[in-house]
Amino acid sequence: MNVPNALTILRIFFVPLLVAALVLENFHEWLALGIFLTAAATDLLDGYLARRWRQVTTIGTLLDPIADKLLVSAALVSLVQVQVLPGWMAIVIIGREFAVSGLRSIAAAEGYTIKASDLGKTKMASQVAAISCMMLSVAHESLWVPGMVLMWGVVLFGVLSAVSYFRKFWHKVDERIKQRRRRELLALERRRQRALLRQRGSKGGAGLGGAEIWKPPEVS
Fold first, then answer.
1. What are the structural domains of the chain?
2. Which has the least CB within 10 A, 1, 41, 58, 181?
3. Other CB atoms closer than 10 Å to residue 151's CB: what's the count?
4. What does the H/E/C string look like for the chain?
């Protein structure tokens, strides 16, 4: 296992620690913030090292977005649990992640690669800032309003980046799927036509074989 993949797996192991730090009765906001920021830093570091050392692997490509979504989703659900974040905001942000992930999977199956857009990168940076501020607002109420402003920014950037992804790639993916289905239907129709021709040919041969051949009468 290379270093970038190890950092990705480490980020996954940070998730239960983050949840424990947020929802336990003896809340430690600075501990939770430290765990979250450390995990977020591994997200930047593993991608940088993988590209710089040319260690981009299939398992790393698969695990990296999963680790990101686990980290952000765990933080949002925990903030809802401690009643500092409205539940609908968490649903919108997490739902956006699932929707874009589904689009990426469909695009990958059709041979397209969806890279992170500038809005997507801005969304990630705003998520880290907003969640960090909301964590601190649990013990410092004066930070709740700035945290909510940042969370609204997360929702806005999330929705805009999702719309950007779907506008760019859904038409291409949809056309690719329609073309593949048309080819499948054409191939099915050709097979059906060949089967009908073989069936007609076998019936014609059987009829000819069973008929008596007429011969002219002999003249005495």
1. 3-168 (1.20.120.1760)
2. 58
3. 25
4. CCHHHHHHHHHHHHHHHHHHHHHCCCCCHHHHHHHHHHHHHHHHHHHHHHHHCCCCCHHHHHHHHHHHHHHHHHHHHHHHHCCCCCHHHHHHHHHHHHHHHHHHHHHHHCCCCCCCCHHHHHHHHHHHHHHHHHHHHCCCHHHHHHHHHHHHHHHHHHHHHHHHHHHHHHHHHHHHHHHHHHHHHHHHHHHHHHHHHHHHHHHHHHHHHHCCCCCCCCCC
Confidence label for 57 from pLDDT (cuts 50, 70 and 90): confident
Q: What is the pLDDT of residues 162-217, one digit of tens each?
A: 887 788 777 776 677 777 788 888 888 888 888 888 888 776 655 545 444 444 55
pTM to 2 decimals?
Answer: 0.73
